Structure formats: C-alpha cells, structure tokens
Amino acid sequence: MSQSATRASSHGRRPPILERNLVKGRTNEVSLPAFAFLFCEMLSYATKKSSGIQDMEKKLSDFGYRVGIRFLELIVFRDRIGRRDTRLLNVLSFIHSTVWKTLFGKPADALEKGTDNEDEYMISDNEPNVTKFIAVPKDMSQLSCGAFIGGIVEAVLDGSGFPAKVSAHATASDQFPLRTTILMKFDKSVLLREKSFEPR
User: Would you tell me how many other CB atoms lie within 10 Å of the CB of residue 57?
Assistant: First the structure.
C-alpha cells in the first residue's frame, strides 16, 4: 500500500481509486444517475454515427462487449480466482445472478431455456437500468437499448468459453412495459461439449 493510501485510511478517508485493493473493493460504486447520464451520451453518439436502427443496436452491442470483457476480467480476479465453469447452466447462472447483481444491483428476473430450439436460452429483466431513463422517439420504436446488455452478456460468454450469438428484444407486458429479454443462441461446439458430460 502506498504512503498516500496509508495516510488516507488513517484519516478515515478512502484511498484514491487506483490505489484500492481490487480483491476487496466494492463493485457497486457507480450511482444510477451517473450511469444513466453516461448511457444517454453513448446512445446519442450511436445515433449520430449510425445509418439505421440495426446499425445503432450493433454499436450499442459493441460498447457492451468492451465493457463485458473488462468486467469479466475484474470479477474473475475478485471472486473466482482459479475457478472456471465448464457447464453451460453454471455459466448461465453466473450471468443471471452474479454478473447482473454486480452490474445492476439485483439478479435478473428470469432465466429460461428455449422451447423450440435446444441451443437457445433467455435471460429477462423486467426493468433494466438502460431503459429506465430513455425516451425512444416514435420513429425509432423498434430500437432495443438492451443491445448494450446483450453485448455485455456475449462478451462474458465468449470470455468464459461459451461462444453464442446474443440479441436483445423488447418483451413488454402491461405489468412490465420496459421488460427486455436477452436471447442467447449457442454455438454447436457448446452443445457437443455439454453432451460429452452426460453419463453414458
């Protein structure tokens, strides 16, 4: 620990962020208003640099992917040193609970397996933070701001060795008008590996 960090802790103040212990640090230090402001700026940038809704969603997903890769490195270092999941349900549970809770302050609301295809799983959030403070214009009603979260999920899956195509879909209901579902369609290699774990 540096001298400035020692001085800060002896006076009851927190040490500078770059001198804090990564392993014991709190993970939910960003306030919701700060996050909302930053996300609005990202959305504004994506709007100016995009040629249409699909292009905007791709840019939001790319932003999320960059966040997800760095987040995975941090959370593995903090909480999962020496541990690597090899089963699909374990990594999905990790995303549904640990990742969501660390990023958004609560676990996701649902984790479901697709009924039509065995390679599809879904994670749903009834009130995702990325849509709480966003007013999408009527001419862009098809835009899913959840593409940012989809990018985070895709990065965590890729970084964990579970490649998948991830997309975000608005699945609003009367009770939950902001509900977003993240659809994960896994690569064939993931399903073959899962089958290899099954008892013969």
Answer: 23
